[in-house]
Each structure stands twice: as structure tokens, then as C-alpha cells.
Amino acid sequence: MKKRLTRSDHAKEIALKTVKEVVLVLWALTMLIPLVYMFVSSGKSPGAITAEPFSLRMSWEELVKNYTGVWRGELTRPSGLVLQMFTPYLTMLRNAVILVAVALVFLVLGAVPIGYALARRSFRLKSVYMIFLVFILAVPLFGYLIAFYFMMSAIRFTNNLFGIGIVYAAVSMPSGIIFLRGFYANFPQEVEESAEIDGAGELRRFFSIVVPMSRGIIVSIVLVNFMGYWNEFGIASILIDEQQFKTISLNIMMTSEASAYDPGFTFALLTLSALPTMLFFTIFQKQISQGGIAMGSLKG
Q: What is the pLDDT of residues 90-140, one digit of tens each?
């Protein structure tokens, strides 16, 4: 029988719900206000941005000019000189998508079976391999970027989107493996034993049972690394120097000069750069939610 709430308990429950809703609204505003500010500023002239930074008034002419410039990769100086100093938007978007897709595919293909093997199987030098993974994580990436550049140049992975995508996956592979190892260490052994009794072999158990039941943790790894790959700058800045292969993050870092006399161009680029990630999470929000539920059920 459900316990009847007193008037005091009911008031506390309403107050708690109100506080939660207020916090959620404030959190949503902290996400939306910068986006609105970027979009409004992308439709202003440099003088308007300086004089009225928080005004909602926009100029259609400035809006068209700034977004056309980003679309074409052209920056217009105050003198009227047009410079092709940026990558056209669709090209930089394509480059970023290719890099992220290649990196995520290689990360999942490598980290999932290795993490499973480290958690569920015994083999020689297993502890040494784990120490090696932890050692890689302990060394800062920027500590070996120069050596990294010479090695990648030797195997022709500079200005190579497919090769750089593999490099992205390799750099984040140790953390993914350790994360998955912890998950598979708590994986229900009874499930595999039941499948083995039914005659399922090693590969069939892995691909038909283990991988589907790992959907939640795999989705989590993909989401975390998606944002890291999409916004990655350090590796891309040393391996990409040709304009046609530059990503959105590299072009954003080039806007320091443009911001001095045409901040509207910078805000237009920032607005367009935020759209793909917003679209990604909007499309896959159902899978994200289901993945989190699945992962939690296995840990319970």
C-alpha cells in the first residue's frame, strides 16, 4: 500500500521539483545564450559589434556577406580585398567527417576485442601490456609531438585524412581499452557459459552475445571520443598544412587575424561549426539514452 503523503511532505516534493526545473532551465540557458549571441553577432558589422555587443539588431547584408564568406572560405578586408585564406565550409566539414568516422571505426574495432581479451583471457605478459597502456596515458601528448611529426612524415600520414584518422584512434586507444577492460571484468560470465553449452564458439559468442550486450559502453566511448576528435587541434595542426585538407577546428584557430577587423566572419564560422555536433546529438539522442540504460543494467 502506497504511503499517504502529509501536507508537509507534499510541499517538500513540490519545492524539490521546482528547484530541479529551475536548475534545468538555467543550465539550458547557459547552453543557448552563447549560440544565440554567436548567431546575432554573425549578422552585424564590426562597428555594430563593438558599439552594441548585446543588441539583437542584425543586418541582412552583413549576415549574407559573412555566411557567404565562410561558405566560400573567403575573407573580405575593410579595403574590399577578398582573400582565399580559409577552407570552404563544405570542404572543411567533409574533412572533419572523414577524420572522425575513420577514427571511430578503428577505435571500436581495436579497443573492443583488446579490452575484452584483457578482462576475460589470460596470456603471457598481460600485466606488462597493462603497465604499458598506463604509461602511454601518463605521457602528455605535447611531450612527443615533434617526434610524432617525423614518424608520421616517414610513413606519409601527413595531409592524409585516412592516415590521420588512424592516428587519432591510436592516440585514444589506450584509454578506450582500459575503460572497456573494466566493463568486461564485470560482464556476466553466466551468459557466455550458457552460449558455450549451446555449442557457440569463441567468435560466435563474442559477436552474437558480447558485442550486442556491450552496446551501451560502446556508445559511450563513441560519444566521448566523437567530441574529442571533432574539436582536435594539436595533432591536426602538425599533420595538415594543405588548405584542402584542413578541418573546422583548424580554420577556427586561423580566425585570430580575421577577428581584429571582421569579427562577424568569426561568429559565422563558429555558428556553422556548432551545427554538426548539435545535429549529431539530436539525431542519436534515442540511441544515447538506450545505450546508457543498457550499460547500467549490466552493471547492476
A: 999 999 999 999 999 999 999 999 999 898 888 888 888 888 888 888 877
Domain 89-299 in CATH: superfamily?
Answer: MetI-like (1.10.3720.10)
- 3-state SS record for the chain: CCCCCCHHHHHHHHHHHHHHHHHHHHHHHHHHHHHHHHHHHCCCCHHHHHHCCCCCCCCHHHHHHHHHHHHHCCEECCCCCEECCCCCHHHHHHHHHHHHHHHHHHHHHHHHHHHHHHHHCCCCCHHHHHHHHHHHHHCCHHHCHHHHHHHHHHCCCCCCHHHHHHHHHHHHHHHHHHHHHHHHHCCCHHHHHHHHHCCCCHHHHHHHHHHHHCHHHHHHHHHHHHHHHHCCCHHHHHHCCCHHHCCHHHHHHCCHHHHHHCHHHHHHHHHHHHHHHHHHHHHCHHHHHHHHHHHHHHHC
Q: In the chain, what are the domain boundaries?
A: 89-299
Task: State the Cα–Cα distance between residues 233 and 228, nearest whole angstrom.
Answer: 9
Q: CB of 192 within 8 A of CB of 129?
A: no
The pTM assigned to this predicted structure is 0.81
Q: Which residue has the higher pLDDT, 9 or 45?
A: 45
What rounded mean pLDDT belongs to the chain?
Answer: 82
pLDDT tens-digit map of 275-300: 888 888 777 776 666 554 344 333 33
Taking residues 61-76, what's their average pLDDT?
Answer: 87
